[in-house]
Design a protein that fits this description.
Strand content: 35-45%
Order of helices and strands: HHEEEEEEEHEEEE
Helix content: 25-40%
Number of helices: 3
Amino acid sequence: MRKTMTFALFATAVVALGCGAGATDNASSSSSDEGGAKGEEKAAKTAKIGQAARDGKFEFTVKSSKCGVAKVGSDLIGDKAQGQFCLITVNVKNIGKEPQTLVDSSQKAYAADGTEYSTDSEAAIYANKDQQTLFNEINPGNQVTGVLVFDIPKKAKLAKLELHDSPFSGGVEVSLS
């Protein structure tokens, strides 16, 4: 009973935070939509590794991508891939005027054929050496660097990422090739 109530409270808090983040994004995007097609063209641009890309209140810079990793963590404690882990090192800077939380489950990876992959949050704990980089609030002007972890089939290859400042944002693409 206690676990159920705790889970229900947590789920309610996550939904409430998500709704608030979506409302903020909609308000800021409606004022930027006045720019017309030029704003849309800018948002459609795909960044490359090492280039800054913005979505909402975050500026993302993918530093590196390493696939083919079988296990993350130490010999005593860690997580083993179902297929292979792809470790994406990313720097995230809060360019807004309010604190913003980076949620790793809002980030997506895609193969060249369009297959979508989600992050592996448990493996990310071990890949980030127990630093809580990817689910902490980032204050305005501050930046963090962390590792996003994707567990993909052994023969698969990632082509791009779609990075989001919140679960409801439009996202920005970063090419991995």
